[in-house]
Specification:
Layout: H1 7-18, H2 25-58, H3 67-87
Length: 93
Amino acid sequence: MEVRLTPDQEAFIRQAIEAGRFHRPEDAVEEALLLWEEKERTRAEILAAVDTAEASLARGEGRTITPESMRQLADEVKQRGRARIAAEPSPHR
């Protein structure tokens, strides 16, 4: 597959290589694709969670939202995200 980059994208990659972030342009593209894949996985997880929540509400289930429950949920989401990042080492970091 051949992909054409804009001049700005090429300059961005060159700067990253010069800074030692990557060794080859292919490494930068690989990293970009890994990030895109992660973003799409997260998006799918969010959509699945919304579907689950909507089904729960349709069944009359639910929970009371309080400032404390929102903080707890935010903490849980952060912990899951940090665990996922820790579990997926990048060869370029």
